[in-house]
Design brief:
heterotrimer; A mainly alpha (316); B alpha/beta (317); C mainly alpha (308); A: 316 residues; 78% helix; globular; B: 317 residues; alpha/beta; four-stranded antiparallel beta sheet; 12 strands; elongated; binds adenosine-5'-triphosphate; binds iron/sulfur cluster; binds magnesium ion
Chain lengths: 316, 317, 308
């Protein structure tokens, strides 16, 4: 098992290395180059000066050389400077990452209990009316574009009902409750977006476990129905569900990007989005790489957890 | 004269995926098997489940390369690709026919693969061969799921016959069929045997069927040949203790009882760690110390036509 | 030789008849299919509808901004006086086309990877599946944005082509296809593995069939069912991706309308004209729901067990 974990981790590290190269190249394919962006609109720039700057920043070097330099620096935690904010990339990204993490954790705190509840309630009587309602909800959730969900929530809760702010964030040092009001709509949006898939998995997993022999035995023993569902069913249905949650980090990340853009939250997603719009190459690259690492790490964790819990997987 | 098929010292070993606890294990499915089949002859291959019959059949038909040893067809090595006058009939008539193809296309497939035959002619020959195996010619425009197991097996036989093969490898073609249907298909095979000069490697569990069809019989145990003899010799004067054990509970034709446990007592050892010396010694009523130490070679039995791999071959029960 | 055995000869097309009957009985799937067909027809006939109503889809009319629904403008007009209904239909054309084309393109790639992987097994398989896992582990929306932002002239594509209006359409088709092929690859691989060991493939091999023959004649027709279902789900996902990308400004660019980019300005209009922010989204939602339901119906229709 230790060898298995090691091997999978090594593989993941290799993937990150390869992906960093691919992303480096992709970012290089975006319009313009860093020097153009820096000197844009400066009338005194002569071609000679451009060439000097290029040499100074090493932009004239072959791609592989530039990548190698970037990688070595990145390994020491130096991701270069942002050319819109003129500050080190990490100084911009770290607070943004924390903000996004807050959004993601709060979202999971809402969507996991809700999905477990709805999924298992629906599973108790497949094709009953409760199940049908839950299925429609889940289907709507997976079929809605997330940016539009955000729009609808803004129209309903901020414009029409005026309960909540439509976006932005509170002043620094504002009372906790006020800080939280700014998070309600984003969390609600992201949770509606992620719950659909999760509900479907919980439901399918529960239907399967509730039909398993040991559950029938528990029922036959005359245990109360809710004990059967909670104690025996849910616990056994959790393994696939935990995996799905871990695997959904990637889409949660994607969703967070859109939600942050919609509500003007200063998170990772918005940072990456702004960086791409403003051709802030270093920030975009570091942000994307971070998102990749998070996604990969969560699927690695899911794999390992599965490996620990289900010995068959280890033998491949 | 060169025989039609010449199998020489063939072994097939499957490496089983590296385990976490030790080195790779090797499964010896077939070990040092040699035999020949003459043109038009039917050789039956019998043995318990897991003895390597199917694996050997795959090697003969070129579906699998042996780990060592050689297979020659009319003096030429069999390759895994390219045109071969060898056809296969499988045990499971449901898996043998592509459910998405029309029966006519299934039967004519060997011609299509070989090429050089027009679509119209393929159709023509398919419907002719289908009537030969006892199905209406219109079957060509039906799908396999519209046929019963026995009918499907007829379709599979038609497919094997259409390219005028010289050897057909039939891997337990009856054992998945209903008993009532078995004898019909058996009679069909017998008819074809009598009317056409085709050699068979006929793999079977069922000694009754073998007695009905075979010219010669080869007995396989844990991947090794125990005995090979003409049908008459084998059934009347078996010289290997394992063969005798098999024969003591010969089921009648059609019963299709499986062999495991019949006659020989105890469990079949694992092909992952075959017993030392004679692989049969763990279950052999005649086993002596010599048997656990020395591997008996497949040698002629004195005064007979058959070969047996037993230190005490031929000497009474 | 032997007497012909009794045969009950059914009509040869009965597999498809049975499937069609099962599909028809799935009422939601049938409704969804009809909805999609009507939508496709309406979108295809957008220009005819515009003519019939007497509106010019691209005409800007600043005196008729935000006009409410009328007999001429059935759904009213937008912030610069264009007819909303006609723009929605034009946008639907793009969304549906992108959905189908990107699914076809990504699907073809996924099937190729999956079938090769499953058919060859061994090292090729391990390599291709690791590659698939890699792509699967990428954060999809940020990646789509970067791909959408790529400067195509840096790839050495001809400038003349890059200036043509269809570029942003094809770019988004390719970009989405590049990212969304993994599910289909995995499904094709699993299905291939289960088919390739069936005896009919072995029989063909024994007759000397090449790998290519086996893949085209036996494997592909036999893995079609799961692929159709996966394809339907992919179309839904692609439509969502397209709308998100276009909304964020990295997809199809205005003035060509798509359901996504029609919402780009809606954010500023939520107070003045919330309906403008609702229509395109509702269409996306309904379309994706319908596509998912059709996929569900196909799954049921192809599964003989659902007969009982
Ligand atoms: N592809 C494979 N990989 C690993 N082991 C295999 C493979 N194919 C067969 N074996 C093993 O080789 C041995 C012989 O199998 P084979 O199918 O040839 O036996 P058989 O005599 O045909 O049995 P049966 O009567 O059940 O069909 C068995 O132990 C089987 O588990
Ligand atoms: S060699 Fe010995 S163990 Fe093997 S069959 Fe002969 S008597 Fe039995
Ligand atoms: Mg077998």
């Amino acid at each position: 098992m230790i060898r298995y974990s090691l091997r999978r981790s090594l593989q993941a590290a290799l993937v990150i290395f390869v992906m960093s190269f691919v992303l480096y190249n992709l970012i290089g394919l975006m319009p313009g180059d860093p020097i153009d962006v820096m000197l844009e609109g400066n009338p005194s720039v002569t071609p000679e000066l451009m060439a000097q700057m290029r040499a100074l920043y090493g932009v004239d070097q072959p791609l592989v050389v530039r990548y190698w330099r970037w990688l070595l620096a990145a390994l020491t935690g130096d991701f270069g400077y942002s050319n819109t904010y003129f500050r080190p990339v990490l100084e911009i990204l770290v607070p943004a990452i924390l903000q996004t993490l807050k959004l993601m954790v709060l979202t999971l705190m809402v969507s996991i209990p809700v999905s477990l509840l709805l999924g298992s309630v629906a599973a108790r009587r497949p094709n009953g009316w409760v199940d049908n309602i839950v299925s429609v909800l889940a289907l709507t959730s997976i079929s809605s574009p997330i940016f539009w969900l955000a729009l609808v929530f803004i129209i309903v809760f901020a414009v029409k009902l005026q309960w909540l702010p439509a976006g932005g964030s509170s002043m620094a040092g504002a009372p906790l409750m006020e800080q939280l009001t700014y998070l309600v709509l984003p969390v609600l949006t992201l949770a509606s977006f992620t719950s659909g898939q999760l509900i479907r998995y919980v439901r399918a997993s529960m239907i399967e476990t509730l039909n398993a022999d040991f559950i029938r035995t528990a029922r036959a023993k005359g245990l109360a129905e809710h004990t059967v569902v909670l104690r025996h069913g849910l616990r056994n249905a959790m393994l696939p569900v935990v995996t799905v949650i871990a695997l959904s980090f990637g889409s949660l990340m994607s969703g967070a990007l859109v939600v942050e853009t919609m509500y003007g939250m200063l998170g990772m997603g918005k940072a990456v989005y702004d960086a791409i719009v403003n051709k802030d190459f270093n920030v975009a690259l570091a942000g994307l790489l971070f998102a990749t690492v998070v996604t990969l790490a969560s699927s690695l964790l899911a794999d390992l957890a599965y490996g620990w819990l289900d010995p068959r997987v280890r033998l491949e | 004269m060169t025989p039609l098929l010449d199998v020489r010292d063939v072994s097939v070993r499957f490496p089983l995926g590296g385990s976490w606890f030790g080195a790779k294990q090797i499964l010896r499915a077939v070990e040092g098997v040699s035999f020949q089949i003459a043109a038009g002859e039917t050789l039956a291959l019998v043995g318990e489940s897991g003895s390597g019959k199917t694996t050997l059949g795959h090697v003969v038909s070129g579906l699998r390369s042996p780990t060592s040893g050689s297979v020659e067809f009319r003096g030429e090595a069999i390759t895994r690709s390219g045109e071969k006058p060898i056809q296969l009939v499988f045990q499971d008539p449901f898996s043998a026919l592509d459910p998405r193809m029309l029966v006519g296309d299934i039967v004519a497939e060997p011609l299509r693969i070989r090429g050089g035959v027009s679509t119209a002619e393929r159709r023509d020959r398919a419907s002719r061969i289908l009537t030969q195996v006892g199905l209406p010619a219109e079957s060509i425009s039906r799908y396999p799921h519209q046929f019963s197991g026995g009918q499907r097996q007829r379709i599979a036989i038609a497919r094997a016959l259409i390219s005028d093969p010289q050897l057909i490898v039939a891997d337990e073609p009856l054992s998945a069929l209903d008993v009532s249907v078995q004898s019909q298909v058996l009679n069909l095979i017998k008819d074809i045997q009598e009317s056409q000069q085709i050699a068979y490697l006929f793999i079977s569990h069922d000694l009754g069927v073998v007695n009905h069809l075979a010219d010669r019989v080869a007995v396989l145990y844990l991947g090794r040949l125990m005995e090979i003899a003409t049908r008459q010799d084998l059934f009347e004067r078996p010289s290997h203790p394992y063969t005798r054990a098999l024969l003591t509970s010969l089921p009648r034709v059609g019963r299709g009882r499986r062999l495991p446990g019949q006659g020989a007592h105890g469990e079949i050892p694992s092909p992952l760690s075959p017993p030392s010396g004679c692989v049969f010694h763990t279950r052999c009523p005649r086993a002596e110390k010599l048997c656990t130490e020395q591997v008996p070679e497949l040698l002629p039995v004195e005064g007979r036509t058959q070969l047996a791999a037993c230190h005490f071959r031929g000497s009474g029960p | 030789m032997t007497v012909a055995t009794n045969l009950t000869l059914e009509a040869p097309q009965s597999i498809w008849n049975a499937r069609w009957n099962r599909f028809r009985r799935h009422r939601l799937a049938m409704t969804a299919t009809i909805f999609l067909i009507l939508l496709a027809i309406a979108c295809a006939a957008a220009d005819l509808i515009a003519n019939a109503l007497g509106v010019d889809p691209s005409a800007v009319d600043l005196f008729e901004r935000f006009s409410p629904p009328s007999s001429k403008h059935l759904l009213g007009t937008d912030e610069i006086g264009r007819d909303v209904l006609v723009r929605l239909l034009h946008g639907g054309r793009i969304s549906l086309m992108v959905g189908l084309l990107a699914t076809a393109l990504g699907g073809a790639f996924g099937v190729l990877i999956g079938v090769v992987s499953g058919f060859l097994e061994g090292r090729t398989d391990a390599f291709l599946m690791r590659f698939t896992d890699c792509v699967l582990s990428l954060p999809i929306i940020p990646l789509l944005i970067v791909l959408g932002a790529v400067d195509l002239s840096k790839l050495g594509l001809p400038q003349a082509w890059l200036n043509s209006p269809s570029v942003s359409f094809w770019r988004i088709v390719v970009v989405i296809a590049l990212v969304d092929w993994t599910a289909i690859a995995r499904i094709s691989r699993a299905a291939t593995l289960s088919v390739k060991h069936r005896d009919f493939v072995q029989a063909a091999r024994a007759s000397g069939a090449t790998r290519l023959y086996n893949i085209t004649a036996h494997i592909l027709p036999n893995i079609a069912t799961p692929l159709i279902v996966a394809g339907a789900l992919t179309v839904g996902r692609v439509i969502l991706f397209e709308s998100t990308l276009s909304f964020l400004g990295f997809g199809v660019v205005p003035p060509t309308p798509t359901w996504g980019n029609m919402l780009t300005n809606a954010q500023e209009l939520v107070t003045s004209a919330p309906a403008l922010a609702i229509y395109p989204g509702v269409l996306i939602l309904l379309t994706v729901v319908a596509v998912n339901l059709v996929g569900d119906g196909v799954r049921v229709a192809f599964d003989p067990r659902s007969d009982s």
